[in-house]
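If your schedule permits, I should be very grateful for your opinion on a structural question. I would ask you to consider whether the tokens describe a fold that such a sequence might reasonably adopt. Thank you for your consideration; the sequence and its tokens are set out here.
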Amino acid sequence: MIRILLAEDNPADVYLIEEALREHGVEFEMTVAPDGEAAMDLVASQTVLPDIVLLDLNMPKRSGGEVLESIRRSAGKELPVIVLTSSDSPADRDEALRLGATCYIRKPTGLDEFLQIGATIKGLVGG
């Protein structure tokens, strides 16, 4: 079973990500942080880190970039962090990768494409 930290403020996207994981047979335990500050607190306070972090860039309280920087400072580069965002800005993509994102995925608009995110996560951490 993989442990996932999902930093996402949109309940509909949380639901779709859970469905994408189930669709691809990923057994998971998910903790959801509804804002960037909660995500940073969760990573800092956990004695056992998640196996993967799914991170939205556009979050309340703290930006995804700030969260990513904090994760890299506290957890190092071994923890996979997938930036999962609605932004298709090349500047956002470049900045996320510069800050240490494992990969950058633009949130799809179609259900079938969204469900493929489960395959990406499964490929990174198994499950």
